[in-house]
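re: ur question from yesterday

yeah so i grabbed the chain u mentioned. its 175 aa long if i counted rite. heres the sequnce exactly as i have it in my notes:
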Amino acid sequence: MKTVTKSWLIKRGACQDQVDRFTQLYPKGMLLTRENVWICHKAGLDVIWAACHMMTKEQRQEFILFTVRQRQPHLVELFTSIGLKEHATQIKNLRFDTSKEAQAAIPILNAARAAARDTMGAARTATDARDAAWDDWDTAWAAWTAARNSWGILDATDAAREQQIEWCIAQMARG
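ran it thru and got these structure tokens back, copy pasting raw so excuse formatting
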């Protein structure tokens, strides 16, 4: 059974806040069990980050495909709701059964993201004098995420996040 320790987290570049929280929970390290993973998650630790650092390259690719397939219907709903039906249709028609298909989808997803950002920017310009913040990608993406989450679409902190964690646990159990 694998063990996670403070030094393991530090070696892989974990944030100090995450290292401190982990150390408070498990000062001597933690056996990697389903129960312990859920305890860490409920304590606010980013267990998916840790899981990704334990995965092989192939497992990470599988995880990305799993996550994209999981979110695809929500993306379609999101792009439809903001009037970007052409992008919604393109996203709906994407296939993510292989890494090659996922790679081919990247330009389509990036174009959809840019169109959504432009749409959100245009909407904000009409009502918000702070449109200059859209020049800063981090601020724009944070605003976009907040708007998306306020619609209740693509809420990865609940059921979707739990499915991801269970997927990660299953992968770690396989070795």
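noticed a couple things. The chain has two domains: 3-54, 58-150. also Residues 129-134 have pLDDT under 50 and may be disordered.
anyway ttyl
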